[in-house]
Amino acid sequence: MDDDYFLEHLQRWKRRFKGAKKAKNHIILGFSILVLGAGLFFYFFAESPAYSATISRNVKINPEVIDPLSKIGKGLLSDYDGKGIYCAEKKIFIEKSNGRPEKIEALLAGYPMTEMVPYIAKRNPKVASFLVSIAKKESDWGKHSPQKDGKTCYNYWGYRGGYNPTDSGYSCFDSAEQAVQVVGDRIKELTEENINTPERMVVWKCGSTCGQDQDAQNWISTVAYYFGKLNS
């Protein structure tokens, strides 16, 4: 009888041991599944284009990390002004502009004014839009513009100023960059005086004497059309 009791007691402990071992295996299996699930969760969001784009927009990139030589002014990014967004795919900085430089480039493609795109794109959005829109009406983006001594004056806006005037009184600029700088600064001054719509900017054509004549209305219509395209 003692032997039977001993065997029964031994089998009871054996069953308990197997139950504990089985529970332990279940805990290990459950933990492994939890870890695997968490890994897949974070992998999905890390690889998600939308999530990656959010990171790209919100992480401030230090140019010195990407291009160490920029710190001493000799790197590829030495001219970077800190206002752009770093595009890892193309390894370049893109100016924040809501796509305006691309729109300007598309509009001016094939016209003499296309060489001014890099300089126009540096101006604030409103000034850049007026530079393009006014030039369309005044010179068809450089196809019909003043010359001096057989050379282009880069004056595509019918701008009359004191610098190197032609016989007709139009300023004859030395370069595309200078032209955008001078004319852009004048447009900027006007916008700061609340002349900030195509209707008000018609003073560019006929000054304070502008009336409701057809020429003025045609000028406004053309400028407003391209101004709208660049700001849509």
Descriptive tags:
mainly alpha; 232 residues; 9 helices; Lysozyme
Task: Note down, in words, how this protein is organized.
- 54% of the residues lie in helices and 5% in strands.
- With 232 residues, the protein is mainly alpha-helical.
- It folds into three domains: 2-47; 56-95, no CATH class; 100-230, Lysozyme, CATH 1.10.530.
- It has a two-stranded antiparallel sheet with strand order 1-2.
- A hairpin with a 2-residue loop joins strand 3 and strand 4 (151-152).
- It is elongated and about 120 Å long.
- The termini are far apart.
Quick take:
The chain is mainly alpha-helical and 232 residues long. The chain contains nine helices and four strands, in the order H-H-H-E-E-H-H-H-E-E-H-H-H.
The assigned structural class equals: mainly alpha
What name does the CATH topology of the largest domain carry?
Answer: Lysozyme
What's the architecture of the largest domain in CATH terms? Orthogonal Bundle
Which overall shape is indicated by the principal axes computed on the Cα atoms? elongated
| Average pLDDT taken over every residue | 74
SSE topology sketch:
Layout: H1 2-47, H2 49-58, H3 63-66, E1 84-87, E2 92-95, H4 100-108, H5 117-120, H6 125-139, E3 147-148, E4 151-152, H7 176-192, H8 203-206, H9 214-230
Antiparallel strand pairs: 1-2, 3-4
Helix pairs in contact: 6-7, 6-9
